[in-house]
Amino acid sequence: MTGMLHSTNWSDLEDLDSNLDTPNDPDQLWKDEFQWYLNTNDVLPDGMTIVEWWGIHAHRYPTWASLARDYLAIMASSVS
Known about the structure:
Blueprint: H1 10-21, H2 28-39, H3 50-57, H4 62-72
């Protein structure tokens, strides 16, 4: 795979934008972001790390990108 495959339904994006402007429920913002993330067709291209992917897409999912920055920064360890 040479690049990122991306298929976006722009009407869904507009619906998401309108929901993000005036959420009635404080939890609705992250729930909407999460649903949008689950419903996208983004593919991690060969050679791109998950950290790079989140850096590029942080503006689309700000709540989840913040969590990714927190948790992806934790170094992995092995137990032997």
